[in-house]
Specification:
By secondary structure, the protein is of the alpha+beta class. The protein contains eleven helices and seven strands. It folds into two domains: 198 residues; 169 residues, Reverse transcriptase/Diguanylate cyclase domain (Alpha-Beta Plaits, 2-Layer Sandwich), CATH 3.30.70.
């Protein structure tokens, strides 16, 4: 089983890495096509100003320009919509560009006697694309074929020109492969570092963010919310009498209970900006932003109902025959006079009040929700 899961993990990492390369390839292709479509007309104007430009050369420039503009539009659409065709699109773009630009370079040499356009084109092709190893082998063959075609075109003017063109072609392919290897190594290291960071900020039992991850992410969100004047809130959550549950059913069942409740909380706080955290033991936390006080209390009550709907049998029935949670809510507008730590402490104090006043409820600003009178929170002590 472990060997199979290890193989699956490696396969998944490889697919993720290749997907990242494909997406980057499309972005690079988009920039390359935009630059090339801007430079081609300028190059034609420059050539036309120095003398007569053949009709065939002009037609070839128009074809290349049309392909580059169309490619830019297609690649922009793919990049913006994150379409899964990015790998195929990236490959096809570069192969089409080589197929169109190679005869244009040959025609340019026949007209100007210079291989400068070919040198610039091969130089760009060795740097811009980012392929997987298998793709790079095919791409190298394509570049070599372009080099052979160009070498054959200049061979009529002497061995020196042919050798020079051949050397440039080989150097471009070799440089491209070396640069590709460096790029892939850098991307792989970045991916591994990201994975390690994610693992260090993830609770291994529930898969939720752990305390370390919460501190880092909240530290990023706090100043942004301060600038945007957006309310943030913390819901501190504690499973009622979880120790008694563990004592009766055992720690394996306790772990299953924790995972189910973590799932219920995560299913309730579904926005991308919501951070669901296991702070330790039977304690959880939800950090939200851009919600008002009423909405945050509503989310807490939704979590309370979601946990109750799990109908997990409890060992201690003083509160309920099923596992329940107590919650404390605190919210504020971030500024320089408060902090995430102070907000969490306020939510924790509200949680303490919820536990002291019967549990299985939500407390916010001294009012208890969950056991309501006329739809309103009951003031504690009333």
């Amino acid at each position: 089983m472990s060997r199979t899961s290890g193989s699956t993990r490696r396969s998944s990492k490889k697919k993720e890495f290749e997907s990242r390369l494909a997406a980057d390839n499309c972005k690079r292709g988009l920039i390359f096509s935009a630059v090339l479509s801007a430079l081609l007309p300028l190059y034609w104007v420059m050539c036309n100003s120095t003398g007569y430009v053949a009709v065939g050369y002009t037609a070839m420039v128009i074809v290349a320009e049309t392909i580059e503009l169309a490619s830019a539009v297609v690649l922009l659409y793919i990049v913006k919509n994150a379409i899964q065709l990015s790998a195929s699109a990236g490959r096809l773009y570069y192969f089409f560009t080589v197929a169109v630009m190679t005869p244009l370079c040959i025609m340019d040499y026949g007209m100007s006697g210079s291989i400068m356009l070919f040198v610039m084109f091969m130089g760009a092709l060795s740097v811009v694309p980012c392929f997987s190893r298998g793709e790079m082998n095919v791409y190298s063959v394509t570049m070599i074929a372009a080099g052979i075609a160009m070498t054959a075109a200049v061979a009529a003017d002497g061995v020196r020109e042919a050798v020079g063109t051949g050397v440039i072609s080989v150097a471009a392919v070799a440089a491209g492969r070396y640069i590709q290897e460096l790029f892939r190594s850098r991307e792989r290291i970045k991916g591994e570092l990201k994975e390690k960071t994610f693992a260090s900020e993830q609770d291994p039992l529930t898969g939720l963010t752990n305390r370390r991850g919460f501190i880092r992410r909240a530290g990023v969100i706090w100043p942004i919310s301060m600038r945007s004047h957006v309310m943030v809130g913390v819901i501190a959550i504690d499973i009622d009498f979880f120790k008694k549950y563990n004592d009766k059913f055992g720690h394996p069942e306790g772990d299953e209970c924790l995972k189910k409740i973590a799932g219920a909380i995560e299913d309730s706080a579904r926005r991308q900006t919501d951070i669901v955290v296991r702070t330790g033991g039977e304690e959880f936390l939800v950090f939200v932003q851009n919600m008002n006080k009423k909405e945050i209390i509503g989310l807490a009550l939704k979590i309370r109902s979601a946990v109750a709907d799990l109908r997990i049998e409890h060992a201690y029935v003083e509160v309920s025959q099923y596992v329940t949670v107590s919650m404390g809510v605190a919210c504020t507008y971030p500024d320089t006079h408060n902090s995430v730590k102070e907000l969490y402490e306020e939510a924790d104090q509200a949680l303490y009040m919820a536990k002291e006043n019967g549990r299985n409820c939500v407390v916010c600003d001294g009012s208890m929700y969950g056991r309501m009178k006329n739809g309103l929170g009951t003031a504690i002590g009333s």
